[in-house]
Amino acid sequence: MHKKLLAYLNHEPERYSITPNHIATVVILLGFAFRVLVLHGYGNSLSLASDDEGYIQGAINLLKTGQLTYSFGHPGPMEQTMLIMPGIQLLLALLFKIYGYTQSAILWTRFVFILIGCFGMVGLYKVGKKLFGATTALIATAMWALWPPAVLADNLILTETPFITLMLWFIWYAIKYCDTKSDADLLMILLFWYAGFMFRSTIALMPILFTGYYFAKRFPIKKLIVRGGASVAILLALLMPWWVRNYLITGDFVAATSSSGVVLLAGTFHGDDYPVIELASFSWAPFLIVGEENAQHHQMRRMGEYARRRIQYWWQTDRQSFLETYLIKKPRDTLKNVWWSLQLLEIHASTFNNIQVRLLWLALASVVLMCFIKQKRQSALLCLLFVLYGLLLCIIFLPLSRYFHPFVPFVFLLVAAFFAHVCSAVKFLISGIKWRHIFSWRWLSAFPFFRGIDV
Questions:
Q1: Is the dihedral of CA 237, 238, 241, 246 positive or negative?
Q2: How far apart are CA 450 and CA 139, in angstroms?
Q3: Is 96 helix (H, G, I), strand (E, B) or coil?
Q4: 71-81 pLDDT per residue, tens
Q5: Segments in 208-348 forming alpha helices (H)
Q6: Which long-range contacts (CB under 8 A, 24 or more apart) does 23-30 make?
Q7: Distance separating alpha carbons of residues 203 and 201, to the nearest angstrom
Q8: Is the whole model's pTM more than 0.90, yes or no?
Q9: Which of 422, 414, 419 lies closest to 363 in space, CA to CA?
Q10: Distance CA 199, CA 355 (A)
Q11: CA angle 439, 444, 446 (to 5 degrees)
């Protein structure tokens, strides 16, 4: 026994090396500290006084009545709603069940959302490392951790933070499954997709974006069809209770929410004073019939129908204006604006708008650069698809910076990949230079003035 003890005491420990995972941990801790400092400085004053208060009121009512409701800013009575997905209120109700819903409890809820946001940073790092490598992942994670609009979002009680986290982990397992083909990874894909859908239906069509990536990676087509069909069947079974609930309340089939009507209608006002009626003078009152059963749902349905009629009329009467709005103005307004709904740290939104425009140009340059790097081509195109997917949703509905915010991490990944590969190329070029020849004075003998001088 004493020989083993002496051998252990005399053992020289291995040299400790810092790995990218260690650096990523430090970066995420810095992001966590930044968010906590903002929470400490602003507290519960961080509020949009709209959706966040509606979610909190609905969660409290869910605990009291067991019904999913959302009526903030709605003149009608409290009623079961189809305006939102249930995830955010179920999460808040769980937290409120643990420590109540006082002002101090709201602060603890914000802290939980910060932790969820940090978990999302871990997901971003893993996605970036898998697609582009550790250096790119570190740069992108640092950018997101210290990006003030992301810090603000993680301090607000909204769907953005949990949705972004769930989406990133869904993407991570989808990329990982392409290599492992493991049933466990497939189950994690389904879990994170379903959880993300329960917060925002934006994630619904994202699995389609992986089709080209899987083909490029030569995933077995037969297995893709079989596993894909089984996954669709499982998800349909999981969504069935939500569909049945909506049908029993409204008598209509509501796949996700009925709130798309209002954003679709608002999006038809986005143009140069066309259609003629401006949004500021437009009356929303005719769509709401006070006292009607399920008034919110029917109001949104009427708005959607009216929006589709406006789009059809716009296309038939002024096709050029329609195309300019949906192909130029909406994409431009979506990309040039950053979601900075509350002014913190004495920083104006215009500052971040200017930064984001430059980052988008760098991201575009990154895609062009990656097309010439065979190993990274599929990764860059996949990130580009995510960005375009988020942009397309804003074009179809409303070009609101808040709707595009969940897809900004993929812009950061592309920008980080650009910097990482440019720096790597510069390092390679510098390492190939024979510096002793450059700093030697012998090359000066080529000039007549220095000939004959012994150096």
A1: negative
A2: 48
A3: helix
A4: 655 544 567 77
A5: 211-216, 221-250, 260-267, 295-317, 319-324, 330-336
A6: 23/138, 24/122, 24/125, 24/137, 24/138, 24/141, 27/121, 27/138, 27/141, 27/142, 27/145, 28/118, 28/121, 28/122, 28/125, 28/141, 28/145, 30/142, 30/145, 30/146
A7: 5
A8: no
A9: 414
A10: 29
A11: 135
Which residue do the tokens 């961080």 mark? 46
Burial of 171 from C-beta contacts in 10 A (0-12 / 13-18 / 19+): buried
Band of residue 10 on the pLDDT scale cut at 50, 70, 90: very low
Which of 52-56, 301-305, 344-348 is the least confident region? 344-348
Q: What are the structure tokens assigned to 367, written together?
A: 């895609």
In this structure, are residues 90 and 191 in contact, taking their beta carbons and an 8 Å threshold?
Answer: no
Q: Locate 144 and state its tokens.
A: 């997101």
CB-side neighbour CA atoms (13 Å) of 440: 9
Rounded to whole angstroms, the Cα distance separating 417 from 134 reads 10
Q: Which two tokens stand for residue 141?
A: 């994670």
Pair 131, 413: CB distance under 8 Å: yes
Dihedral sign (CA 163, 168, 169, 175): positive
Inter-CA distances, 280 with 75, 332, 336, 399, Å: 20, 22, 23, 17
Burial 369-396 (b: 16+ CB within 10 A, else e): bbeeeeebebbbebbbbbbebbbebbbe
DSSP 318-336: -HHHHHHIIIIIHHHHHHH
Q: What DSSP character marks residue 372?
A: T
Peptide bond into 275 cis (omega under 30): yes
One-letter amino acid at 322 equals F
Q: Where are the domains of the chain?
A: 19-258+337-428, 259-285+293-320
Cα 109 to the center of its chain, rounded Å: 21
Token pair, residue 215, equals 């083909």
Q: How many residues does the chain have?
A: 455
Return d(Cα 92, Cα 110) in angstroms, integer. 10
